[in-house]
């Protein structure tokens, strides 16, 4: 059975979509959830699904003990699902080409430090973009610059608000993220 580790900072809707997708398949297990927020909704998801979780901070993220903990789960992939901290070089080196991220826009547009969630959607609307979407990409040492694996698009209308655009993007995320992970795991 292949093992996933999910990193998330928010309510955990993508984590939940991934867990549910693979629960039906039975060949992939989410072994650990990592968060940097003690009040993150993803902890409730972990508890409901009986998945162990770790709460990290700037001092522990990337440390030897943390890397040893991750290594003990023998992850096929580490999946960033709304994790709002930069992944330290020590983790990138240890899990080279095994860390992927989802971004709520069509990179390279609207990426980089500070570009997450509603900030991205506001930027798309302010820019007058006719489409937005998601990008699933490999993680490297720079924010949102790793090799693009999957992109999916949605139309942006004049009536869209941050909330309506976020809803469209979430639908894409919940559909494409688990399937992209499944495809990557099949290649391993």
Walkthrough of the structure:
The protein is an alpha/beta fold and 188 residues long. The protein is built from 6 helices and 7 strands, in the order E-H-E-H-E-H-E-H-E-H-E-E-H. The protein has a 7-stranded mixed sheet with strand order 3-2-1-4-5-6-7, with helices on one face. Helix 1 (13-25) links the parallel strand 1 and strand 2 (28-35). Helix 1 (13-25) packs parallel to helix 6 and helix 5 (117-127) crosses helix 6. The longest helix has 25 residues, at 162-186. The protein is globular, with a radius of gyration of 16 Å. The mean pLDDT is 96.
Give the structural class. Answer: alpha/beta
- Report the radius of gyration as a whole number of Å: 16 Å
Report the major sheet.
Answer: 7 strands, mixed
- Order of strands, main sheet, comes to 3-2-1-4-5-6-7
Q: How are helices and strands ordered from N to C? A: EHEHEHEHEHEEH
Portion of residues in beta strands equals: 15-25%
**Shape descriptor:** globular
The overall average pLDDT, rounded, is 96
Uncertain residue ranges = none
- Report the end-to-end length measured between terminal Cα atoms: 12 Å
What's the count of strands?
7
Counting H and I runs of at least 4 residues, what is the number of helices?
6
Helix content: 25-40%
